[in-house]
Design brief:
heterodimer, A: mainly alpha, MetI-like fold, 9 helices, 0% strand, B: 248 residues, alpha/beta, 6-stranded mixed sheet, 4-stranded antiparallel sheet, globular, binds adenosine-5'-triphosphate, binds magnesium ion, transmembrane helix (chain A), transport (chain A), ArtM/GltK/GlnP/TcyL/YhdX-like (chain A)
């Protein structure tokens, strides 16, 4: 039996400083992309609720296209395809941020739409009956209530998007997974290094989960 | 004679359903009008047309001398009307994310452009008037149903409306809380507020109404003073309706 595998803690531990060089990229792409995605989500989510078909349809098309295609294909398209169209190269990090932005934006649009639709119609009626304009009613009454309900699904999307950044090793972004691959190429300690990579992802997503739980708990006891 | 509400030949459909049929209704300043009728007869739709929560298909409607056009084609006068017309809903529709005081302050702040100080003072005054001065900083869900509905009335009053619409304000309340809300409404009527009230509280109608209107399948079948309607109804539909509601 020469297949007596021994987990080498030292190897896992040693890889961490090198892996952590990828962390700023992972975080920057995740959060940069999510911030833009949130803005896109508000824009297209609200447009998709509009009564006017010429506003609603483009928003619906955007949502369906970016939810219905793999993010890996989206980023390959942005990185290799888009430069042909615009006649200039796009650097990998920018392509990655755009991919997270448009992808999470589509899902967040649905979160926004669902959140706004979940607010009882009587709330709007009470607002306009008081003489508030439709915009004021939305801004002071519907949105604050909808936003509270959007927090858990938004947190969920953030976790998904953070994990999605691991795909961007394919276009050469030096994020966590890419760093792992480079490290393994020199040390041949795949098991230990991927284990360390996984733990780093888990540390990020768990921190986020905990923050969200605290927020939910607080807003429940406040309301 | 100028009416605060002047409705002529008002018609309204929901799809195939003809819910309001040639409604003629004039309301004078200071009048308390109670609208009664079976479920689905069109009572809510009727009063919701007055502040434009429902649009209508045909006919004439003037509220506080602002003219409303059919099919919702009058956003401008609609906004003017809504500033002058308060509405109280069956389900209260308080804003759950705001404190009681903030619920009342919102419209004075944003529509009347009052200062925060003035709006807060007004809110406290109105809360005292509806008998819940000490609840200002609670959230609506911490109050009983009767208290919530009184906050909703205070919220509408904060705009100093010239007309108040009530759509079954006590129907969602536990029986023991009905009285406290009716008391507030009685007080308003006494102070001369013009009120249109949809209710099943016949005792209240008899005592407070200047005029009672009976609606059946989208038509005003009969109207008159409470005595005329409750003691001496002429139409057999009215008689049948009243004997049904008064017997239980
Ligand atoms: N938004 C709507 N779409 C379609 N039909 C409606 C709508 N609102 C009300 N209706 C119908 O119109 C009719 C009149 O409704 P309305 O709510 O005015 O009756 P109501 O007299 O207030 O009844 P209730 O005592 O149950 O409140 C009913 O048949 C109702 O089902
Ligand atoms: Mg009704």
């Amino acid at each position: 039996m020469d297949n007596q595998f021994q987990f080498d803690w030292q190897a896992a531990y040693n890889s961490v400083p090198f892996l952590l060089k990828g962390l700023p990229y992972t975080l920057m792409i995740s959060f940069g992309g999510l911030i833009v995605g949130f803005l896109l989500g508000i824009l297209f989510g609200l447009l998709s609720l509009n009564k006017k078909w010429y506003l609603r349809w483009p928003a619906t098309a955007y949502i369906e296209i970016f939810r219905g295609t793999p993010i890996l294909v989206q980023v390959l398209f942005i990185f290799y395809g888009l430069p042909d169209l615009i006649g200039a190269p796009i650097d990998p990090v920018t392509a990655a941020i755009i991919a997270i932005a448009v992808n999470s934006g589509a899902y967040i649009s649905e979160v926004v739409r669902g959140g706004v639709q979940s607010i009882a119609k009587g709330q709007q009626e009470a607002g306009v009956s008081l003489g508030l304009t439709k915009v004021q009613t939305f801004w002071y009454i519907t949105w604050p209530q909808a936003f509270r309900r959007m927090i858990p699904p938004l947190g969920n999307q953030a976790i998904v998007s953070i994990k999605d950044t691991s795909l961007f090793s394919v276009i050469g972004v030096g994020e966590l997974v890419r760093q792992g691959q480079v490290y393994i190429a020199n040390t041949f300690t795949a098991f230990e290094v991927y284990f360390a990579v996984a733990l780093i992802y888990l540390a990020i997503t768990l921190s986020l989960s905990i923050l969200l739980r605290i927020y939910e708990h607080r807003s429940q006891s406040a309301a | 004679m100028s009416y605060i509400v002047n409705m002529q030949k008002l018609n309204k459909h929901f799809g195939q359903l003809h819910v309001l049929k040639d409604i003629d209704l004039q309301v004078t300043q200071g009048e308390v009008l109670v609208i009664i009728g079976a479920s689905g007869s069109g009572k809510s739709t009727l009063i919701r047309c007055i502040n434009g929560l429902e649009d209508f298909d045909a006919g004439q409607l003037e509220v506080d001398s602002f003219k409303l056009e059919p099919k919702g084609k009058s956003q401008q006068s609609l906004n003017s009307i809504r500033k002058e017309v308060g509405m109280v809903f069956q389900q209260f529709n308080l804003f759950p994310h705001l404190t009681v005081q903030r619920n009342i302050m919102l419209a004075p702040l944003k529509v009347r452009n009052k200062s925060t100080q003035d709006a807060a003072k007004l809110a406290d005054k109105l809360l005292a008037r509806v008998g819940i001065a000490n609840q200002a900083h609670k959230h609506p869900e911490q109050l009983s149903g009767g208290q919530q509905q009184r906050v909703a009335i205070a919220r509408a009053l904060a705009m100093e409306p010239r007309l108040m619409l009530f759509d079954e304000p006590t129907s969602a309340l536990d029986p023991e809380m009905v009285g406290e809300v009716l008391d507030v409404m009685r007080g308003l009527a006494k102070e001369g507020m013009t009120m249109l009230v949809v209710t099943h509280e016949m005792g209240f109608a008899r005592e407070v109404a200047d005029r009672v209107i009976y609606i059946h399948e989208g038509c005003i079948v009969e109207q008159g003073t409470p005595e005329e309607i409750f003691d001496n109804a002429q139409n057999e539909r009215t008689q049948a309706f009243l004997s049904r509601v008064l017997s239980n």
